[in-house]
Write a structure and sequence with these properties.
globular; 16 helices; five-stranded parallel sheet; alpha/beta; single chain; FAD/NAD(P)-binding domain; 34% helix; 20 strands; hydcarot_desat_CrtD; binds flavin-adenine dinucleotide
């Protein structure tokens, strides 16, 4: 049979390997790390387990689809539940708010806690659904780089509505029009961070994101986020995909504009096609350095990065849920730091993700596993040792002020992930979480395609190429890509 090689076992690489196996290819995955999953990995320290990267799971049917395609029932292999409470929000003035999956409950909470007209919530969520319904078929489900995507009725309908779809104002402007209460503007602006963008710059089109969390739902895999990696890795192995760990690919071999295979540790490995799941920018710098460089795509500004403190906390906080946000008092200032000053605000928005709320064995008894994260600029050579030390102090102050506690003595274990270690662990250019940012109105068109336009047999999937970063889009990138590949 025909052979396919996949470079990297990130979530998109895993999905691609499953889809290619189903197309009849003999699939070999080479991975630099000792483990699959890339950013979607886990660590355990002294009785505490942490998901290292993604914490929010939307569009779970993208995972189910991979099982169905392989003739299996997802429910037999991978369990998840829809969250009733999406997130707990905290402000320093004592305001607290929960966002509920149930629209009525959410609108009601907003009216009680913020005095906002509940109709405004419903209108905003309907608008988000409207954007999704027009744009998902164009941007999320197909290759943008094929004419057929643009010449059809759906595309025509979308062109006629570019204004309504929010292309010409910013997310912040649109949210200010939607809501009276500033805290709600802030809450909805935060969705820009779901793909590492700046709400004060990014087009209002990104108001598509709340649709995923509210209308389609936020989910939690029963065994934690890492179960997504684990179950897809097992599925791929069951389908006969072969994985080689600790095996970085040194080069993709191309002859006369046709892909021939890869070189791994000095040895040539032949294949009929190669799928690159490595970050596209770093791939062109290394394993594709002899090929034409798609400069236009390589120069795009990157999304933000993250600084995470994985803390084992020897106390339980009943007011905290799975997802918690302690909001900055100066949100615009925070983004100014991230995207313009390339630094970190002294009053950052702190995100605390606690899986032990749902999965008790993730922390010892009466303890919690805190994944404590702030958004930070991507790596531009800043002094990270200094920034990290300052940020740690700011985060601790923020938590103490907002939750009225003294958190430092409660920290039992600590591990840190920063832009430098994100890049060294997964090769993401500048340690960006989601590839390119979407701050530019044309960002969607400035992502690399899921195939090479000049080299036959070379394909791309993952957060740094079309349609973008985050688990659902990475899974979609593998689907769009495999739709372009003929059966073996
Ligand atoms: P990656 O995970 O980037 O993996 C690429 C793989 O390729 C790696 O395993 C790497 O080792 C391997 N590789 C690289 N070079 C080579 C080579 N030369 N040879 C062989 N192998 C190679 N998304 C969400 O949906 N929800 C969230 O809540 C969320 N939060 C996040 C929080 C953090 C801290 C981070 C880091 C990311 C978060 N994301 C979130 C984004 C999400 O993790 C990514 O978009 C997604 O996991 C990227 O998958 P990928 O397939 O592009 O590959």
């Amino acid at each position: 049979g025909k052979k396919a090689i996949v470079v990297g076992s990130g979530i998109a690489g895993l999905a691609a390997s499953i889809r290619l196996a189903n197309k009849g290819y003999q699939v070999q995955v080479f991975e630099s790390n000792a483990y699959p999953g890339g950013k979607l990995s886990e660590i355990s320290i002294q009785g505490y387990r942490f998901d290292m990267g993604p914490s929010l799971f939307t569009l779970p049917e993208q995972v189910d689809e991979l099982f169905a395609l392989s003739g299996k029932t997802a429910r037999d292999h991978f369990h998840y539940k829809r969250l009733e409470v999406n997130c707990h929000y905290f402000w320093e003035d004592g305001t607290r708010l929960r966002t509920f999956a149930d629209r009525e409950a959410f609108a009601n909470e907003v009216q009680i806690n913020l005095g906002e007209n509940p109709e405004n919530i419903k209108k905003a969520l309907d608008k988000s659904a409207y954007i999704y319904n027009y744009l998902a078929p164009l941007f999320m489900h197909r290759s943008l780089h094929k004419w057929s995507t643009w010449i059809n009725k759906k595309a025509l309908k979308a062109y006629l509505r570019l204004g309504k779809l929010g292309l010409f104002n910013t997310m912040n402007q649109a949210n200010k029009n939607h809501f009276d209460n500033e805290k709600l503007v802030q809450l909805f602006n935060r969705y820009a961070t779901y793909n590492g963008s700046n709400p004060y710059q990014t087009p209002a089109t990104l108001n598509i994101i709340p649709h995923l969390e509210f209308n389609r739902g936020a989910y939690f895999p029963e065994k934690g986020m890492h179960a997504i990696t684990q179950s897809l890795y097992t599925l791929a192995t069951d389908l006969g995909v072969s994985f080689s760990f600790n095996k970085p690919v040194d080069k993709i071999v191309v002859e006369k504009q046709v892909t021939k295979g890869v070189v791994v540790q000095g040895r040539f490995q032949a294949s009929d096609l190669v799928v690159n799941n490595m970050d596209m920018v770093n791939a062109y710098k290394t394993i594709l350095k002899d090929q034409d460089q798609p400069t236009r795509f390589l120069q795009q500004p990157k999304s933000s990065s993250a600084l995470i403190f994985y803390w084992g906390i020897r106390k339980e906080f009943p007011e905290l849920d799975l997802h918690n946000i302690l909001f900055s008092e100066d949100y615009a200032g925070e983004f100014d730091h991230i995207f313009h000053k390339k630094s970190i605000s002294e009053d950052p928005t702190v995100y605390i993700n606690i899986t032990s709320v749902h999965k008790k064995d993730d922390a010892p008894e009466n303890c919690m596993n805190w994944f404590t994260m702030i958004n930070v600029p991507n790596n531009q050579g800043q002094n990270w040792e200094l920034l990290k030390a300052r940020a740690r102090a700011s985060i601790i102050h923020k938590i103490n002020r907002t939750l009225h506690t003294d958190i430092e003595p409660l920290i039992a274990v600590e591990e840190i992930l920063d832009p430098i270690t994100i890049e060294s662990k997964t090769s993401s250019a500048n340690g960006a979480l989601y590839g390119n940012s979407s701050n530019n109105r044309y960002a969607a068109f400035l992502r690399h395609a899921n195939f090479s336009s000049s080299i036959k047999g070379l394909y791309f999937c993952g957060g740094s190429v079309h349609p973008g970063g985050g688990i659902p889009l990475c899974l979609l990138s593998a689907r769009i890509m495999c739709d372009l590949i003929p059966k073996a």
